[in-house]
Amino acid sequence: MKIFSISKDNWANGLARLAGSYHLFGPVKEAQYHDFKELAKGQLPDLDFLNTRLSAKSVIYPQSEALLEYSLDESRDDHHIMKEVAADDSPRAVIGIRPCDAKAFVLVGHNFDTPDYKDPYWIRASEATTRVGLACEAPCSSCFCTTAGCGPYHEEGLDVLLAEAGDDYLAKVLTDKGQKLIQAAGWKTEADVDSAGRKLEAQKQAAESKIAAAVNTDNLKTIDTTELYNAPFWEEVSFACINCGTCTFLCPTCWCFDIQDENRGKSGRRMRNWDSCMFPLFTLHGSGHNPRGTKLQRVRQRFMHKLKYYVDKYDVGIQCVGCGRCIRSCPVNIDIRRVCDYMNSYGSAKDACAA
Ligand code: SF4
Ligand code: SF4
User: Fold this and answer.
1) Which residue owns the Cα nearest ligand 2 atom 6?
2) Which of the chain's termini has less CB crowding within 10 Å, N or C?
3) Ligand 1: which of 234, 297, 303, 334 to mutate, judged by most atoms within 8 Å of the beta carbon?
4) How confident is residue 18, by pLDDT bands cut at 50, 70 and 90?
């Protein structure tokens, strides 16, 4: 394992060199928030942010993506034949991704890249992407990553982890992909691994100590699924929800999509678009029946999926990295930490009542 010391004076030069072999993405300040965008030539990622409004998931899993294309022109020999749209899988790098967003790619990968099912679009984009993380020194008050299997210096899903070090960044290389990127940038100054490692560990502990919010998840796996599904608190949890879908669109671990054919004249494309379990149309059948026709059913589905079904199915913890985005942006203040506590304590609370 190597740790490089990158002088901030040499940061822009390195990124300029990287731009020769990677499409670079990074946080960019919009009106009142930061979001991940492809960086224009010479544009630097703005690393002065707490967290971005949307996660970096769209770099690998675009909000709207053309999968196939076809022609409806019957004078052509290939009319009505679906053809794969040529994808740009050339190397790309995300600079400044937060550790929670990087871990989210790992959680999402359990869905898109399994022994039985492989999503070629997501897998190709994931393999083409090098993820350069930026450790959090001052987490948001709504972050609860340390109890969601993650943390401000968490390394899962990253190729390089950057941390502030005064006039420098310390860059911990975590994978071969990360090493390749450091070389391509021309950053050559290796730090002493022992002293740099101690510094990173001290900063990590200081950052973790600033995270006050927490969730308890220890009972989720053992609680009976049907009992949790029928718990009385869903009425209260879902009461204020307006099914706007904000929580799911900005969540780095939500992956639901819809596929639609879009025709224009005699040509068409089969598109994959983000969708949301919070929208009634998401589950509306062609027959008119909707198995999740009420908002209680939809809100319950979101939390049961993240905090129970995912836990049971993959056995890798909850489908949440504690980034806090859904808490900060929900217009009616629905808080996953409170719902998680309701769920996690439901079985034991019932037992206590029964006793
Ligand atoms: S952001 Fe809040 S109001 Fe909107 S769908 Fe999610 S829980 Fe409901
Ligand atoms: S559920 Fe909320 S806190 Fe958890 S990863 Fe998604 S947006 Fe972040």
Assistant:
1) 251
2) C
3) 334
4) very high
Q: How far is the centre of ligand 1, averaged over its atoms, from the C-alpha of 20 (Å)?
A: 41
Number of helices and strands in the chain (H, E) = 12, 11
Residue 32: predicted pLDDT:
86
242 lines ligand 1 (CB under 6 A): yes
Mean pLDDT, residues 127-132 taken together: 98
Query: How far apart are alpha carbons 152 and 158 in whole angstroms?
Result: 13
Separation of 273 CA from ligand 2 center, angstroms? 20
Which residues are CB-contacts of 161 (< 8 A; sequence separation ≥ 6)? 99, 133, 135, 153, 155, 171, 172, 174
Q: How far is CA 199 from CA 157, 168, 172, 190, 195, in A?
A: 22, 13, 12, 15, 6
100 CA: nearest ligand 2 atom: 5
- Is the pLDDT reported for residue 246 higher than 90? yes
- The atom of ligand 1 lying closest to the CA of 326 is 1
User: Which segments of the chain does DSSP mark as H helices, in order?
Assistant: 11-18, 99-112, 120-128, 176-185, 193-209, 225-229, 233-238, 246-249, 295-304, 310-314, 325-329, 336-354
Contacts of 207 (CB under 8 A, 6+ apart): 135, 136, 137, 138, 139, 151, 152, 153
- Closest residue by Cα to atom 7, ligand 2, is 251
- pLDDT tens for 170-179 read 999 999 999 9
What digits encode the pLDDT tens for the residues 285-312? 999 999 999 999 999 999 999 999 999 9
Structure tokens at 162: 């950057």
Tokens 């009505």 correspond to 80
Nearest ligand to the C-alpha atom of residue 237: 1
Check residue 354 and give left, alpha or beta (phi > 0: left; psi -120 to 50: alpha): alpha
Q: What is the chain's mean pLDDT, rounded?
A: 95
Cα–Cα distance between 58 and 37 in angstroms, integer? 9
In angstroms, the CA 130 to CA 142 distance is: 28
| Cα of 300 from ligand 2 centre, angstroms | 15
